Amino acid sequence: MVTTASNPTPQLPPAHPESQHHHPHDRAARGDEWEYAEACLQQTAAALHECRAASVAELNHGIAAAREFHAMGKPSDLLEVIARIQGHDEEHIGRAILDLSAKVSIAVSPYPPLIPFGGKLIAPSAFYESFDHIHRIARALLSPVIYAEDTDAIGTASANPVASAILAEEIRNSVFRRFGIRPFVTIARLDYESWTFLSRKHFEL
């Protein structure tokens, strides 16, 4: 669960009007996975502000840029956008995102570990087929499901631990609604190379 920042929140661009009145769970049933992406933008921005990893100007620019992609149905994560806004070139973008990820992790409980072997994990196609809306939300959040042992133990990972925390909560709720059980859902962080590889593999990006 993502914690609330103790410092005053930055003056960020307001959320889309619909997201102010509907919980993402309510809209997921109608296919609007981008409400989850919007929630992730807001929570990630608050975490970056809290740990002083980005200025308010950078966050405003980053959120606006990510929303443009979302409006076109294309996933975009704020950590990568911010890393590029801060001037990191392609050679160093992976390290920059990893550093931002580590800082943002402070806002996520339990602390998500970094798994260096994430790119070798096989996509859980049966789970995605059974929970198609989870697959759509995972794509919007760029947080692949990295394993699914039936519905008892499930894991999701991303370069952005806030995204994985949001997806993990939706997985718990979805499995409970269908089967009446609360699965053990773990979250982890991926390095940039594993993250981009799995995102292409899972979401055909």
What does the model show?
By secondary structure, this protein is mainly alpha-helical. It has two domains: 17-107, no CATH class; 118-203, GMP Synthetase, Chain A, domain 3 (2-Layer Sandwich). The chain contains nine helices and three strands, in the order αααααααββαβα. The chain has a three-stranded mixed beta sheet, with helices on one face. The two termini are 28 Å apart. Mean pLDDT is 88; it is low at 1-10, 17-22 and 26-30.
Secondary structure: number of strands: 3
Percentage of residues assigned to helices = 40-55%
Strand arrangement across the biggest beta sheet = 1-2-3
- The span between the termini is 28 Å
Structural class: mainly alpha
Biggest sheet layout: 3 strands, mixed
Coarse morphology: globular
Strand share of the residues?
A: 5-15%
Count of alpha and pi helical runs? 9
Gyration radius (Cα, Å) is 16 Å
- What's the average pLDDT? 88
Order of helices and strands: HHHHHHHEEHEH
Regions with pLDDT < 50 over 5+ consecutive residues? Answer: 1-10, 17-22, 26-30
Number of domains: 2
Strand and helix layout:
Elements: H1 24-28, H2 34-50, H3 56-71, H4 78-85, H5 93-104, H6 125-130, H7 132-141, E1 145-149, E2 153-158, H8 161-179, E3 184-189, H9 192-203
Parallel strand pairs: 2-3
Antiparallel strand pairs: 1-2
Helix pairs in contact: 2-3, 2-8, 3-4, 4-5, 7-8
Protein traits:
9 helices; 3-stranded mixed β-sheet; globular; GMP Synthetase, Chain A, domain 3; mainly alpha; 205 residues; disordered N terminus
Short structural description:
The protein is mainly alpha-helical and 205 residues long. It is 51% helix and 8% strand.
